[in-house]
Every structure is written in structure tokens, then in C-alpha cells.
Amino acid sequence: MPARVYDTLIVGAGFTGIGAAIKLTQAGVDDIVILERDERVGGTWRDTTYPGAACDIPSLLYSFSFVPNPTWSRAYPPAEEIRRHIEAMVDRYGLRRHLRLGVELTGLTFDEAEGVWIANTKGRKRFRARTVVLASGPLPDSSFPDIRGIDSYQGHKIHSARWDHDYDFTGKRVAVIGTGASAVQIVPELVKQAEFVKVFQRTPGWVLPRLDIAMPPIAQELFANVPAVQQLAREALFWGHEASATALVWHTPLTSLVARLGKAHLRMQVKDPWLRRQLTPDFAPGCKRMLISSDYYPALQRDNCKLIAWPIATLSPAGIRTSDGVEHHLDCIVFATGYDVHLTGPPFPVTGLGGRSLAEEWAHGAQAYKSINAHGYPNLFFMTGPNSGPGHNSLLVYVEGQLDYAVKGITTILGNDLRYLDVREDVQRRYNDRIQARLAKTTWMSGCRSWYLTADGFNAAMYPGFATQYLRQMRDFRFGDYEAIERDARRAVYASG
Ligand SMILES: Cc1cc2nc3c(=O)[nH]c(=O)nc-3n(C[C@H](O)[C@H](O)[C@H](O)COP(=O)(O)OP(=O)(O)OC[C@H]3O[C@@H](n4cnc5c(N)ncnc54)[C@H](O)[C@@H]3O)c2cc1C
Asked: Ligand 1 centre and the CA of 13: distance in Å?
């Protein structure tokens, strides 16, 4: 019996994959299968369990507008609450029947003759689908960094993305390597448990205060009974963040204002001038991800905490040796060193028309049309794809634009019974030329070293504009930008110049 061909296969059951399933079923595409390598849904919010883990964009905006949740407990709720929200989305929209948990995709190949994607999985089971939504996440993997001497270290090692809940920090001498978004959440919690915490900093980031409040019950009730009020609160947050692009995406006089705010926050929280100097960034706000915390600087100044700004020379059997020759003896090292961001494409082979390989084509930086389609890989929709990252707003706002676009593309393919729809190469090239020209004028390209850039300095991560601009382009699905091939003919049904 020939294998069943689904209308749509979704890879990943994080916020994005579940959002795609909701939008597709609402559009009448019900023949879908969602492959998730883990045994539970939730993505980042299932995997991120370090102490203090929370979102750093308020959840009223860091959630989907089409799945309002009136019961958020705080402005910045903890990871576990966000995970439960994603789990609740699955039940609310009856998506369990589409889920295949514990199934890891190992490769995708397009069968041109059939107009079908073939998905190989670790368990050897094959899935076939006419269209694919790739929602395997912008930060899917984490590994210990390649630091000199790491294998010689005899103590305990923990990566922030895979927390070890069995390890008891009581009475332990602990190091945290890294001072990014995860570290500023972890350090304030660790100093409450460990005997001593040393924080190893390579470059200090800009830290702005986190105005976290418990959501008053009256607000929750109002949100539940008058959804328009919650929508209004979301809009206010959206426009507030949108305005910050004028300071964070481009270098303007407002960028200096943000720098002044950051320095004022530092001055208010840190009295020691030498520590202040060590914590003062030497790059423009926005060039790297902004850090949001009101308890990181106070934690660094506790008696049992110390900032080490000397570069790490090597890890040793006993701990960490810094370039000033000091050996720091440690029981445990926490690596808050971030993720293996796939600036060059998904971490599994994707084979498109004529056997072309996505990994080869994107080896020096990923490129796609409107971040979502790549020429030569028809019927495939990349979520959080190339140049779709925001520096100033909620990622999920951008994902909503991608979901609506993917639904338009998928219903166009299915509704017209097309064999495939492939974005035109010239359209994609022109789009990327414009994106790269616009990127050149952004803060991200102003000289700091960030995970937004490949080793060659190519920016395949960020969208150089306002969220409103991104959403406008995603609302506009132009059939003429694609070559459409009918199911039973090899000719293009539409290809405009
Ligand atoms: C600590 C932390 C805080 C963050 N806070 C914010 C914030 O405040 N605001 C913001 O905008 N963004 C934030 N982010 C970014 C965050 O990653 C995204 O907002 C969001 O989680 C992306 O959702 P996703 O579904 O696209 O990806 P993910 O959440 O990564 O989900 C992808 C899913 O795909 C599965 N998968 C991957 N590969 C395969 C495979 N081969 N086969 C099958 N399944 C696979 C994974 O197991 C996972 O479940 C944060 C990230 C972290 C780590």
C-alpha cells in the first residue's frame, strides 16, 4: 500500500508549530501531521528550566494574538507557565490527534515528479506530505562551547539550556560563564543557593530594568470578561516596543538616550566605580540583544558573588584559569553560553529540486524570500527563517505574519491542486539585495561581535525594519512571485516577469 500523503507536515511543536496547526485547521487544512522529537510539546519553554527562566518581552505581547490568555500570573511569567500555555493551546484547539511525539526528523527530500516532500525520521518511519512547515526553532540546539581545556575539567558541568535539577548547589563554589540573556536570569537565583558564585564576563551587555509585576486579579478578570481590554493592552505594548526600533535597530539620537538610560540604571544599582566600569558596554545599544533585569547587578554585589572580567585562558582539572594567572577552584561550572544558532539552515539535510542541497546553498549564510520560501525548495515554508529576527519586539509577532503567509501559500497549492509552487530566483535575489542593503545601515552591523552574524560577518538573522513593515510584506502574497507547476503537467501555470 503506498504511504499516506498528508496535506501538510509540521516539524516541531513549540509555539510556532502549534500556532501553524491552529491557523491551518482554521483555514480548513485538517489533514496535517506534527512531528516533535521530544515526548512533550513546548519547545524552548519545555527545555529551558534553569532557575529564574522567564520571557523578557511581556507575555501579553509574547503570545499569539489569536490565543489570548487572560490568566498570565505576571508581566514576565516563568518558563513553566509559558510551557503550560502551549500545552493548553493543543487541547483548546483539539490538536493532539495530529501530534506524533518522540519522532525526530532526520532529513527532507522533495519528490519532484509527485510534488511530495518525503520526511525521514530517526525511527526509520517515513512521512510524506504535499507541503511542509519547518518550525524546528531558531535556537534548537545547545552544546558546551569549545573552550580550551574543557575536557580536563573534573568538576560538574551544566548547560543553561539543559538544567540539571539533581545537582544541589548548597555549599558549592560555582562559576557562570557568559553574561547574556540566560545568565542575567540565572545569577540572581544561584547566589541564593550556592556558597560562592563567580561570573566570568567576556563583554558586558546593556541592561535595562525589568518592570515585572504580579498581574492583579482585577486585571485578569477584566481580560477574561472584556477581551478588548487585553487586546488594547497588547496594542499599547506592541507600539511601545515598535517605537524602540528607532533607537535599537538604527543608530539615531535615541540610541544615545537608551545608552544614558542603561548607564543611569547601572549608576543607581552599582555604587563601586570600578565595578561600574567593568559593567559598562563598549558598543551601541541594540548591536547585541538587550538584557532586561532588575536583580542582576544587585546579585553581582552580594558578598558571595564576584564578577571576573579577565579573559578565560583555559579550564583546568580544578576549575578555570584566567589570563591574569589566577586559578579559580570550582565545584560546578554553569555554561550560559547560548545556542548553536543555525545561521546556515536547519540542522538536517534538506534536498530540493534536482537534488540541490540547502546546506550547501546556505553554507555562507541563509537566504530566502520574505524569510519563508527558498528558490528550489518548493512547497516548503520556513518559520523564523532567514532575516526574520526582531531586535526590539516579540518574535511571536513576526511568527504570526509568517503563519498567515504560509496558510495563503499552502491553501493556494492545495486549492489549485498544484504539484508545486516555487519562489522565482530573480524575485528572491532582488529581495535579498534590498534586505542586505538595508541591513548595512543597522546597529547590528556597527562592529560588535554577536550571534546574529556568521563568522564572515553576514547577517542572516535579523529583519532590518519595523515589525509593521515585516507584517505588511507578509500580508502581501503575490502569486506572480512564484513559478506554479500543475499536478499533471510540467508547465508553469503562471510566471510573470
Ligand atoms: C530562555 C529563552 C527566553 C526567550 N525569551 C524570548 C522572549 O521573551 N521574547 C521573544 O520574542 N523570544 C524569546 N526567546 C526566543 C524563543 O526561542 C522563541 O520566541 C520561541 O520559543 C520560538 O518558538 P519555536 O516554536 O519557533 O521554536 P522552539 O521553541 O525551539 O520549538 C521547536 C520545536 O521543534 C522541535 N524539533 C527541533 N528539531 C526537530 C526535529 N529534527 N524533529 C522533530 N522535532 C524537532 C524541538 O524539540 C522543539 O520542540 C527566548 C528563548 C529562550 C531560550
From this structure: 9
**Can you tell me the distance from the alpha carbon of 219 to that of 74, in angstroms, rounded to the nearest whole number?**
11
Question: What is residue 454's predicted lDDT score, i.e. its pLDDT?
Answer: 81
Cα 230 from Cα 245, distance rounded (Å)? 23
Query: SS3 for 268?
Result: helix
Task: Tell me, yes or no, if the pTM score tops 0.90.
Answer: yes
Using one digit for the tens of pLDDT, what is the confidence trace for 147-168?
Answer: 999 999 999 999 999 999 999 9
d(CA 20, CA 133): 8
Cβ of 38 closer than 6 Å to ligand 1, yes or no, is: yes
Distance CA 184, CA 54 (A): 11
Q: What is the pLDDT of residue 495?
A: 45
Which residue out of 395, 403, 451 has the highest number of ligand 1 atoms within 8 Å of its CB and is therefore the one to mutate?
A: 395
Residue 189 contacts residue 365 (beta carbons within 8 Å): no
- Which of 23, 33, 35, 44 for a ligand 1 pocket mutation test, highest count of atoms within 8 Å of Cβ? 44
Choose among 184, 177, 448, 449: nearest CA to 292: 184
Task: Classify 409 as helix, strand or coil.
Answer: helix
* Nearest alpha carbon, ligand 1 atom 6: 55
Q: Measuring from atom 51 of ligand 1, which residue has the nearest CA?
A: 44
**Ligand 1 center to 140 CA (angstroms):** 6
Is the predicted pLDDT of residue 381 greater than 70, yes or no? yes
Euclidean distance between CA atoms 305 and 297, whole angstroms? 11
Question: Which amino acid is residue 104, in one-letter code?
Answer: E
What pLDDT digit, counting tens, does each position of 56-99 carry? 999 999 999 999 999 999 999 999 999 999 999 999 999 999 99
- Pocket of ligand 1, candidates 136, 160, 371, 394: which has the most ligand atoms within 8 Å of its Cβ, to mutate? 136
Q: Where are the alpha helices (DSSP H) in 58-126?
A: 79-92
State yes or no: pLDDT of 493 exceeds 80.
Answer: no
Binding site membership of 184 for ligand 1 (Cβ less than 6 Å): no
If you compute the radius of gyration of the chain from its CA atoms, what whole number of angstroms results? 24
DSSP collapsed to 3 states, 420-437: EEEECHHHHHHHHHHHHH
Residue 72 grid coordinates = 498570565
Cell (9 digits) for 183: 545568565
Task: Compute, in angstroms, the gap from residue 232 CA to the centroid of ligand 1.
Answer: 27
Quick one: pLDDT at residue 140? 60
Is residue 79 a contact partner of residue 48, using CB atoms and an 8 Å limit? yes
